[in-house]
Every structure is written in structure tokens, then in C-alpha cells.
Amino acid sequence: MGSFVSQPLEPVKFVAPPETTSTPKPAQVTAPGAPASPAQAPLFNNCWSCRVLSGSGLIGAGGYVYWMARKPMKLGYPPGPGTIAQMIFGISIACWGVVILSDPKGKAFRTG
Hints:
The protein is an all-alpha fold. The protein has two helices and no strands.
């Protein structure tokens, strides 16, 4: 009884599709001691246009949130805790955009 949300979740099991044996897989030729396949970087780490678009979008969104919080202050209303929190949140979003523009994930330090 009860709602559907209150019931415990049951794990979902997926059935793997059967492998076809009609076409044999080609054997991989690798040198002894060499890795089987090189590690591939994620697609979105090196895309300059993606970084510019997302970084400038976040800066714009942060600026909008900040200026909307500042609008009542310009009219003479005293800032409350919610207004201050909204301004801090807007500045944080804008800083996140600057980080994306200047240093994407994985470029700040060497791995390995």
C-alpha cells in the first residue's frame, strides 16, 4: 500500500543481445608491451568554440542574476539576506564562466 514513490526500488536487469558468430573478428596486431588502444580524450575538452559559447553564456547569466538582485537596491530598498545571496550566486555563475573560458578541465595540471 502507499504511493509508488514509497515503495523500495528494484534493480533493473538488462539482457545482453546475443553475439553473432557469422563474421569473425579480426585479430589485433600489437607490439609486445604496447597498450591495446591509446587513451582517447573526451570530445569537449579541446573545442574552443564550445568553451567560448558556454563561458560567455555563463558570464551573461551571472551578470543577469546579479543585476536583477541589484535593481531593488537602486530604487532605495535595503538589501536583505536573499538579495545578498542572489548577488553572490550571480557572481559565482560569472566566475564559473571565466574559469571555463580561461582553463578548461584537464588543462590546469599534468596527469601521469
